[in-house]
Task: structure prediction
Amino acid sequence: MIEKQATGAIVSEHELSEMRSLLEQRSGILFDVSRERFFSGRVREHMSEKKMAHGSELLRTIRSSNVEYDKFLERLLTQETSFNRYPAIFRALEKKVLPEMHMKKFWENPRALRIWSAGCSSGEEPYTIAIAIADTIESSEAWNIQILATDISKQALDFAERGVYPRRELETLKPHHLTSYFTQEGNDFKVRPKLRNMVTFAPLNLAQAVYMGKFDCIFCMNVLIYFSEERRAGLIQRFFDYLEPGGYLFLGHAESVAKAGVNFEPIVVGDSLIYQKPAGNKKSAAMGQEKR
Result:
C-alpha cells in the first residue's frame, strides 16, 4: 500500500479513497482523479493543523463528529467567485430574461419574482443578480422579489450574510453601482439594504432533495462540475421541476444539460447559452397539433 507523507502527516491511498467516498455520499461532491493532487494536499494540510499523524485518525474523527466533518469539508471547498463573474450571462439576464419576466408579470398582483442562486459561495452571485434586477426592473421595490441563495459552506454563508467586501472584489462593477448599492466603511464596502433585502441566505446540501417551491430563474454556476454524471442529471431534472413554465436555468460555461435527458430548450443570447423550460402554452399547442 502506497503511503503519502508531508509535514509529518501520513495517509494511505486506501484512506484517501475512504475519505472521498464519505464526502461524495454526504455532500455529493466528487473528488475524482483530476483533483487528486489538490485533494491529497488539502487532506494533509488539515491533518497537520489538527496534529494528526495518520489518516486513520482523521477518518475516525470525521465519521464520528458532524462538527469535525464540516470543518474538514470547509478545508476542501474552493470558493472561487466574484461580482459579475460572467458578464455575458448577466447581460442575458438584463437584456432578455428580466424584461421578459417584467412583461409577463406586470399585471399580476402582487408582482413577484423568485430566483435561486444554488451554490452561492460568499454572496457575490446573488448580489450581482440583485443589482441586475434593481437596474432593469423599474420600481423594483414595489415587487415581491426573493433571491434564495444557498450553499453547503457555513463559512461562505456567514461572509455573504455580512455583505461586506474589500474594494478589489468590486472592480468588475460599474462605478455607479458602488455609489448606488454599497456604503463605504473604511477600505471596505457594505451592501445597501435595497440589495440585501432581496436576498435570503440558507444552508443547503444539493445532494439532498429539498423542495422549496417554484422559481422563475435558477443559477447553478460552476457547481455541477463537482458532481458525478449521474448526480448532475438528477440535479438538472430537479431544476427543471422547480422552474415555472417559461423559467430559465443558468449554468457555467463548462456545464451543459445535454446528457441529462431533460427537455430544456437551449437559447443563445449574445455570447451566452441559457436554458428555458418550455412554457405550458407551447406544450398544449404541440399536443393539440398531434391530436389533429
